[in-house]
Amino acid sequence: MLDYRPTLRFAVHGVVLSLLALPTFAGTPIDVTFDDVSPDQSDTDPSDPDGATGGRVNHVAVHPTNNQVMFAASEWGGIYSSTDGGLNWGFHPGHLPLATWDVEFDPTTPTRLYATSFFDGKITSEAGINVSADGGVTWTKPGTAEPPAGFCADADDEGEPSAFGISIDPGNSANVFIGTSCGVAVSSDSGATWTYRDPTGPANTGDRVWDTLALGGGVVHTCGDDGHQRSDDGGATWVAGSGLASGRCSLAVSPDEPYVVLAVVGTTIYETTNGAAGGGATWTQTRSNPTPQGRIPFVATNQRSGTTPDVFDLWFGDVSLFRVQCTSGTSSGGSPRCGTGNSPAWAGGFTRNVGGHDDTGDILFDSEAANDRCPLLFSSDGGVYYNTDDTADCHNPNWEQPDVTPHGLWPFAMSGADQAGAANEDLYFGNQDNGVFGTVDAGNDSPSWHNEICCDGFDTGAESAGIVYTICCFGGGGRSTRAFRGGPGFSGVGELDYPPSGLLPSFEYPDSFVSYAPLSYVTISRNCTVPNGGCQSADGGVFITTNIDANPVVWTELGDATEPPTGNICGVYAANDGTPTFYAQTGSCGSSGTTDRLWRFTGTNPNGSWTELFLPSGGFGVVAVDPSDPDLLLVSGLTSAGGGMFRSTDGGDSWDSIPSLDDLMDASGAIEFRTENGPSDFTGFNGYWQPSMVALDPNSSLAVAGAKDSGLFLSLDDGVSWSLITDPFTSDTSGVPHLPRLRYAYFDDEAGSNAGVYVGSQGRGIWRVDFGFIFADGFESGDTSAWSNEVP
Amino acid sequence: MLRPIRLMILAAVLVATTAASHAESNVASFRQATKEDVAVELSPEGAQGGATQLDSTSECVTGNPRTPRVHLAWALGDSRAFASRIDITKFREGFDMDNYETTGSREGDLEGLAVDVGETGVNYYWRVLTETSGGWVASDVSRFEVPTCPLDMPKDPLGGPEDG
């Protein structure tokens, strides 16, 4: 039976915040405590700043008169701010949309801020344009910030709004222009009301506008899916430019000549010197991009002084950050002010070699200086970095990671291993471009994290003897994704030989290495083309070893003759009740599409056969098998219209729907189970399905499920009945966090301690969730017969 | 004055025509459209036999980081069509101003193309010209976005190159 301590509360960081709708089981509320245990810093940063903890920050803003106050719009984790010049960053729960793009201060009333975000899945969406009148504590979405009916080029954007670049008229801060998924939103009353404009004219419908540039006097430039457009009357009428490509873009103006505008579209740098021409600006490709394709390039300008003719700096960020001095002219037209090719030569790159993380996002300059403003802060895939140089040489910045970064991590992997003692829990996770982290004391209030290596950590696998992890992307002609093995806490790490046939999948959420017994692992590889990516042999498969520490490791392929189509194998799952059982998934593993398939293999005989499993409808999405019960599975089934959740108790031969979980996944109709244009990985708008994770506790009847937008759900009865334990709608006032895009769960089953789970959220990092009750017996024994489905 | 733009087309592979399986066949390359390409006389708008159902899907190539690939597919309006060409531009005004790239006239596989495109984040406009017994017929213009395929390189313990 369960030993339950009926203290009724929700808490974050151990502090009771408020009582809301407490989850109940058998009529009894559950005491749930949330702790954000994401690391504050990277200990790899001093030697390699591409190890990081912030997660990507897209754009940043500085207070117009106080250069210590800054805001940051993180890619998946919401709005953060700092009041000490970028050393310490805190999350703003009042801004509910979490996939954010831009944030700006009103230059004359700095307590007013604007922020933009991508669709949040809600039928009554909070996303798009948000305005704060109290310094970012609370935010509202004005009713007119919603695109009008019939206005959007893509009709799905009408109910799934997203917004992008913000620009405020430097001569009249009441005039605000924001690029959106449906043209330009224009406000002339400081964001109280908005009017949507389509720069391609009233005969068309509004397309994506990625950036806006307001220059005063009614002049505003835009770039995006319709290339370049300019209005001279505050957005009422527009004239198209020529020569600027269509796509993701950034704009900046010369501080000396308003008709000189710089842009980057895709990875190409453009300039126009006749940006005010009546017939439309003419753009030319100008400077070379020294390091093309990080994530999302940007341009910015900075006035310099002391020379004749006037000069200014162009800052350009892609993989790295560069600066070049531009020479101003005296009239419209003429040659590019910032040169062509690499002439004048770029200064930089100012990232990995000077303390900052690659793959840039934005840069801030000192708002308390008029000219020669020092760069204060820049953002990137690693979060934010402040400039330690405030001398005249500050324009050759030296960056440092904050003391407490934003916690906007994007986990691509997570695993744990039980160790004796409440504090001694091994926990590992890999991230998009922030590397692989691990701790051996995850149970402590503040775990002591170690950032083993930078970059893309796609997989982790763990048992009490150690860790397997993978990292992408290596050059040098070998495999681009490599695997490593070490003891607990990364002791004695060395490269691991993984099967010579095929290559590990990359950018997939399921971990490609799964431990099914001490030292025993299963892994998958995908078909490849020799020698691309270090491919040695073309045929992928599913492989096991019973000794991951052997030298060399002996890998045995399972059922090659009947294997799933390994051209697109994406996930493997393992269970062991004395007989190991493996499940392999092909397709996108729930990320996109409705054609994912699932297979089962029982035992370890290489001549055994794979059996394909079928849902009543749809393709497989997210998948979990109980590690101690091969017959118990939880999955999502995806169809083009939606889908639902399913449970099997016979190894996938038959399935039951889970209506209570379906109802939670779409918040009883308040959240779209299937979005059409919702934000997808790497700034795509491919839409998604809500289910993002399911997990079953091997030692009890606990199960959790996670969604992109609708929260974290708990089951005490092996997935039959469910309850919501996070707050996707009112986390700003309830104090109960909203954890989006939950990807991973690791149950912490410690005798004598409260039951709990570690979860990994794409955007909000790693959280410890304490369920507030103690399992009285059987925890460490694995004797699941002792467990009850009911809370006493 | 528009400057000719060379699209970063690394390779293009014609693939088989079934929807279920895009088996690779022969190789094509895009090139800047010439005066001859531009001068192709098109059948009047609304003529029968043009390609329809233009569709695109994209992916990052497994094992080749920083390599996006876009699959273009369309349906023939005239099953007796005997040639096609694919035109592509990253400028909204590209087709109006004859600033585009083309595969040139192709015979054989007529309903699919996989393109490894180099410039992430850019929207490409594309159209299919189909040669039928009634002459060349142009499809409507469609659009696709090249996805971001990141490459984040650790300091290589084996001594290989490194960058961001």
Structure, described:
The complex is a heterodimer of chains A (792) and B (164). By secondary structure, chain A is mainly beta. Helices cover 2% and strands 40% of the residues of chain A. In chain A, strands 1, 2, 3, 6, 61, 62 and 63 form a 7-stranded mixed beta sheet that branches. In chain A, strands 7-8-9-10 form a 4-stranded antiparallel beta sheet, with no helix packed on it. The longest helix of chain A has 7 residues, at 659-665. The radius of gyration of chain A is 27 Å and the shape is globular. Chain B is an all-beta fold and 164 residues long. Chain B has one helix at residues 35-38; strands at residues 9-15, 24-28, 31-32, 52-60, 68-75, 83-89, 101-102, 112-117, 122-132, 135-138, 142-145. The longest helix of chain B has 4 residues, at 35-38.
In short:
The complex is a heterodimer of chains A (792) and B (164). The longest helix of chain A has 7 residues, at 659-665.
Low-confidence stretches of chain B: 1-28, 158-163
Reported for the largest beta sheet of chain A, the result is: 7 strands, mixed
Helix percent band of chain B: under 10%
By DSSP (H or I, 4+ residues per run), the number of helices of chain A equals: 3
> Main interface pair?
A-B, 64 and 44 residues
Specify the structural class of chain B.
mainly beta
Q: First CA to last CA of chain B: what distance? A: 35 Å
SS elements, strand count of chain A: 63
Overall residue-averaged pLDDT value of chain A: 92
Gross morphology of chain B is elongated
The major sheet of chain B is characterized as: 6 strands, antiparallel
Strand content of chain A: 35-45%
Over all CA atoms, what is the radius of gyration of chain B?
A: 17 Å
How many alpha or pi helices of chain B? 1
Compute the number of strand runs of chain B. Answer: 11
Distance between the termini of chain A: 8 Å
Strand coverage percent of chain B? 35-45%
Order of helices and strands of chain B: EEEHEEEEEEEE
Helix-strand category of chain A? mainly beta
